[in-house]
Every structure is written in structure tokens, then in C-alpha cells.
Design a protein that fits this description.
By secondary structure, the protein is of the alpha/beta class. Helix content is about 40%, strand content about 15%. It contains 25 helices and 17 strands. The strands form 3 sheets. Strands 7-6-8-9-11-10-15 form a 7-stranded mixed β-sheet, with helices on both faces. Helix 3 crosses helix 12 and helix 5 packs parallel to helix 6. The longest helix has 19 residues.
């Protein structure tokens, strides 16, 4: 069946009785491909039938399907003619693991962060109506994403619509970590109430037995604005907001889904389809451990075990261990995650100090201000969050943390290039946005021991402070270089003359290789570990300018607002007799691909950096 899908809408040529086989083939295909290249498996296995039903009902690319987050769009890509490109999934130059408008007209909106699809869909609806066009808009959002405040802002706004807008609530009981909060409990109540399959039928059958007036009552109830569900579900949230609610609908029954979409298309106004799916459906290891198979590397299909040797400690591992040690010494130390306890290394903290652990759900902006409140109340909060997700709390960092100079620690994980997830997940803006905030201190370690020292320093520091570190194995070389962390002070590793490398954080390993290349080419070269991006060690810059003609600042952040720009501005303002060479990422989004490949493509690998430095030094 899958071979017969060569382009969008080919699925409409299949017989309804063939769709079950198609779903099985898609699952086998996804398991086979992700077992070799890695990817988001559990979430995609959970929406196979849902995606098939949507593609049967709607006409692409005329109709617009908007995926929240978008990591569950693999089946959508298969059904729009991208099967033969799947070996390139998440590889440099290949297809993205997320929807991408420039990849296909059937990808209506680029996504990667959660809680955005309803807002984007509402924008499409308003544009459609203003332009007098005729197409359907379907926003698919997960129950985990409903913990994000942006989704409620959009729902509130959507309630004013008088034209069709379909919102699919893909309810699989969890996000990456287990869902938390009131919405999770509310949806759990809807799931277990057996509302529309049991009670609705029961009420109808009972009334049918009432002589004469039974049928009249059934018809009257059907016409009642709030319908039968209001009899069995007091205070129906979505209906009370003005959004028609249909469901729960079995998410792996293609026929039921198709019928529900047909009903939803006829409603003049916003309608929410509550679809019940199982994350990891059809592959037992993923069903048993959906969090593990949310984003996974190559694995053995038979056993579900990840392939490859056990890796060294990651920066995340080191952070998690040291934080637990510090929590034993400091009773006011608390930890916060935005639905990423495992990903940010807080799982051990959660087990050891459950009363001091807080999962705010997929709500980074709330998480920042919550941390500010904790700090104002006398606690020492550590908000562990991915760099690209912390962007969502920028206003709160300025207004609620920085303005009040509150002692909040931001453990900024996945900083720099993260690889296969691409543009929406690269942590390449944090040095820029963090450094722009008054009162904020920004550090970045060169190796795992320095991360431990910096975290201990942060715990003792009285003010907003951000500790920035990358994804993956922690650099464990140069262990002997481990001076105490002093506020605003860099660390000189090698002191020579002529050329100086000013290395920021985890680019130290690359900087070491650059220095070795320069030495092999006959150049004198000093190497400085910046440590602090803010405040900048201006005394060090001034000292370097006395016996160096060139300072190359190496960092994995976009050049605008980066450390190199701050060094450049300082040298210019002080009229220092030295040339500053910014070695940062270009001012653009960086697509998906292996980090080593991306560094080479963006000129941040050791060879390219060495060539640039030699060329710049030769121009003096």
C-alpha cells in the first residue's frame, strides 16, 4: 500500500479496507528507518491512523494541517511523497524531522516548539476569511502542549470565530516527561468517564423506552446548545469557552476519525476533536517506554536497545550529579524543569528531593517567573532548561528576574549547535539574549570539572546567573587546568605572543586543536579560556593587546550580540592596539545535520578557523 503513495492525495485512491494494512506498513517503515538513523519514534507511531484519516478527508496542499511541535509529522511526510527521501531524515541537506515550508507545499507552517499550532491556525483562518478563500485549517496539538499558556491565549481568541476552524487535541497522556497540572487531571477525567460511548448511549436508550415523550426528549436534547455531554460533564471547559467539543474519539480507529472530521468540517465556528492515541503504538518497546523512544538514536529493532558503546558522562550528567550534592548542603536549593526532567538531568534530584522539585509543564515563561517568586521568597531556584526553549521566557528574565536582581540560576542545556533537530532547536542565540539583560551574569565551562566548579560558584552567587553548556559528552581533557572560579575572571592556559585565542565555553576543545595547528605552522599563540561572557574580563583583553597583534574569539553562537562582539566593542572604545577577529556563527538559522558537519559548513571547525586566523594575521 505504501508503494502506491507517491504524492499528496494518492491515499484517496486506496480502498477503505486497505487503510489498516497501510497503517501497518507505515509503522514497519518508521521503525526500520529510525532504528538506523534515530529520530522521534514514539510520537510518530501514535499518530499513524490520525494522519491517515486527515489525509483521506482533506485536500493538500489546499487545506492546511499545522502540527504543534512537529516531531510527529513523519507519517504526514510519507503521505505527501517523501518516502524515498527518508534515508536523509535529519541529515545535513536531507529532509527535516519537523514540518518545513521550503521542503513541501504540504507543510503549512514551520514548527519545533510547543503550544504554537492554535495561534498559527487561527492566523490562517483569519487570512482565509479576509481573502475570501475556501479551505480547511486543522491545528493538531498534544495534551502536553496544553500546559503552555500560549495555547490558552489562542483558544480564548479562537472562541470569537464564526467560521470553521478544526483543533485536534492529540491526547496520548504525556509529553516527554509525564504530564503535570490541572489540565492533565482534567483530561484524565474525560478519558475515564466513558462519556460519549457509554453514558451518552445509555441516556439515549433509556429515553427511547419512555412512551410517547422519549423520542421528543432525545430530539430536544440534540438541539440543545450544550448537547448531551453537558448532562454528564459539568463545566465542560472547551464548551464553556465557546468551542464545540467532539470526543473522546478512538485515535487508532480510522473510520471513527474520518467520520469525526466530516462532522467537524460542517461546524461554523471553532471545534475541538479530542482524539485518544497511544504513544509508541504498534512497537512494544516504545509502548513500554515512550519517553525513551521520544527521541532515540540507532537501536536494535528486536530488543529496542540503543546501539553503540556506553558514552562518557555528558555535561547534563555532571550538572545533575553536582546539583544533588549541592542540594544536600543547601536546604533552600530547589530545582525546576519545564517537562524535561530526564533531558535536563533532574531525574536524580526528583527522587532525592521530591519536595524541592517542580515540573511546571511545557511553560517556560511561567517557569522563569515562578523561579523569581521562589527567589523572592528566600529559596535558591535552579531552572534547568534547553537553550532554544529558554528563549520563550526572555521577557520574564528581563522583567521578573533581572529587574529585581533575584538569585535565580539558569542551567542552560543544549547550548550551541545541537545537530539533527535543526533550526528550531539549535542553541545559538543564548549568549546574545542573556548578555543583553542587566544584572545577568553568564558563564560557560571548558570541560566537565569546570562545569562542576561553576555550578558551585552559581549556588553561592547572589544574583541572576546563567550557566551555559552543550549537548553530548563532556570534554575531559586538560584536567590539570582548573583554577578557582573568580567573578568576572578568565583563565590563561598558554601565554605566548602575536596571536591569542579567546575561547568561549565548550569551543575550548576546538580551540586547542586550532592552537596546535598554528604552532605546527610556526606561529606563537596564547590560549585563554573566557569563562565569563558577562561580565567580560576587560583586564585580560587589555593585557593581551600589549603583546598580541590579533585576538581571535571562538564561540558557538550567532555573531550578533555574541562575546566576540562585546570584545570588539571594548577594544574599539578603548582604542586598543590589537585586531579582534570574531569567529562565531553567521547571522542566520542553522539547519539540521551532524554537529561536526555543521561546524565545517559554518566555518567553526579547526581547519577553517586556523585558515581564517592565519589569513587575518597575514593582513596586519
Amino acid at each position: 500500500m505504501l508503494e502506491r503513495i507517491q504524492k499528496e492525495n494518492d491515499i484517496k485512491k486506496l480502498n477503505p479496507e486497505d487503510l489498516g494494512q497501510l497503517a501497518e506498513e507505515i509503522r514497519r517503515f518508521l521503525i526500520e528507518k529510525t532504528s538506523k538513523s534515530g529520530g522521534h519514534l514514539a510520537s510518530n507511531l501514535g499518530v499513524v491512523e490520525l494522519t491517515i484519516a486527515m489525509h483521506r478527508m482533506f485536500e493538500l496542499p489546499k487545506d492546511k494541517i499545522i502540527w504543534d511541535v512537529g516531531h510527529q509529522s513523519y507519517t504526514h511526510k510519507l503521505l505527501t511523497g517523501r518516502k524515498d527521501q527518508f534515508d536523509t531524515l535529519r541529515k545535513y541537506g536531507g529532509i527535516s524531522g519537523f514540518p518545513k515550508r521550503k521542503e513541501s507545499d504540504c507543510d503549512a507552517f514551520d514548527t519545533g516548539h510547543s503550544s504554537t499550532s492554535i495561534s498559527a491556525g487561527l492566523g490562517y483562518v483569519r487570512a482565509r476569511d479576509l481573502r475570501g478563500e475556501d479551505y480547511s485549517v486543522i491545528s493538531v496539538i498534544g495534551d502536553g502542549s496544553l500546559t503552555g499558556g500560549m495555547a490558552y491565549e489562542a483558544l480564548n481568541n479562537a472562541a470569537q470565530l464564526e467560521t470553521n476552524f478544526i483543533i485536534v487535541l492529540n491526547d496520548n497522556h504525556m509529553s516527554i516527561s509525564e504530564n503535570v497540572g490541572g489540565m492533565s487531571k482534567y483530561l484524565a477525567g474525560l478519558r475515564t468517564a466513558d462519556l460519549y460511548t457509554g453514558l451518552k448511549k445509555g441516556v439515549t436508550r433509556t429515553l427511547e423506552r419512555v412512551p410517547k415523550i422519549g423520542d421528543q426528549m432525545i430530539e430536544h436534547i440534540r438541539k440543545t446548545k450544550n448537547s448531551i455531554k453537558q448532562l454528564v460533564v459539568p463545566g465542560m471547559l472547551f464548551e464553556d469557552m465557546g468551542i464545540t467539543y467532539l470526543g473522546p474519539i478512538p485515535g487508532h480507529d480510522i473510520g471513527a476519525l474520518y467520520k469525526a472530521f466530516g462532522e467537524a468540517k460542517r461546524i461554523d465556528g471553532p471545534v475541538l476533536l479530542h482524539v485518544m492515541t497511544e504513544k509508541g503504538k504498534g512497537y512494544e518497546p516504545a509502548e513500554n517506554a515512550p519517553d525513551v523512544f521520544h527521541g532515540i538514536g540507532p537501536f536494535d529493532v528486536e530488543t529496542g536497545k540503543v546501539l553503540g558503546e556506553k558514552k562518557k558522562d555528558t555535561y547534563t550528567d555532571v550538572f545533575g550529579k553536582v546539583l544533588c550534592d549541592e542540594a544536600g548542603k543547601h536546604k533552600n536549593l530547589v530545582a525546576i524543569t519545564a517537562a524535561m526532567a530526564d533531558g535536563t538531568g533532574l531525574s536524580r534530584f526528583r527522587k532525592l528531593y521530591p519536595e524541592r522539585f517542580f515540573d511546571v509543564g511545557i511553560a517556560e515563561a511561567h517557569g522563569v517567573t515562578f523561579a523569581a517568586g521562589l527567589a523572592a521568597g528566600g529559596m535558591k531556584p535552579v531552572f534547568a532548561v534547553y537553550s532554544s526553549f529558554l528563549q520563550r521566557g526572555y521577557d520574564q528574565m528581563i522583567h521578573d528576574v533581572g529587574l529585581q536582581n533575584l538569585p535565580v540560576i539558569f542551567a542552560v542545556d543544549r547550548a550551541g549547535l545541537v545537530g539533527s533537530d535543526g533550526e528550531t532547536h539549535q542553541g545559538i542565540f543564548d549568549l546574545s539574549y542573556l548578555s543583553s539583560i542587566p544584572n545577568m551574569t553568564v558563564l560557560s565551562p571548558k570541560h566537565k570539572w569546570e562545569l562542576a566548579d561553576m555550578l558551585r560558584f552559581a549556588v553561592s552567587y547572589d544574583g541572576p546567573i546563567a550557566l551555559r553548556y552543550p549537548r553530548g559528552s563532556a570534554f575531559d581533557g586538560y584536567q590539570q587546568y582548573r583554577e578557582p572560579v573568580y567573578f568576572g575572571k578568565s583563565e590563561t592556559i598558554f601565554e605566548e605572543k602575536d596571536i591569542a585565542i579567546f575561547s568561549v565555553g565548550h569551543m575550548f576543545e576546538e580551540a586547542v586543536m586550532v592552537r596546535e595547528r598554528l604552532k605546527a605552522a610556526g606561529f606563537h599563540c596564547s590560549l585563554v579560556n573566557a569563562r565569563f561572557v558577562k561580565p567580560l574580563d576587560t583586564e585580560c583583553i587589555r593585557t593581551l593587546s600589549k603583546n598580541h597583534s590579533l585576538i581571535a574569539v571562538i564561540e558557538e553562537n550567532v555573531v550578533n550580540g555574541a562575546c566576540s562582539q562585546r570584545v570588539l566593542e571594548y577594544a574599539a572604545a578603548e582604542n586598543l592596539p590589537v585586531k579582534i577577529l570574531p569567529c562565531a556563527l553567521p547571522d542566520q538559522y542553522v539547519e539540521h545535520g551532524n554537529v561536526d558537519v555543521l561546524r565545517k559548513e559554518t566555518g567553526l571547525d579547526a581547519k577553517a578557523l586556523t585558515d581564517r586566523i592565519i589569513e587575518a594575521y597575514g593582513d596586519l
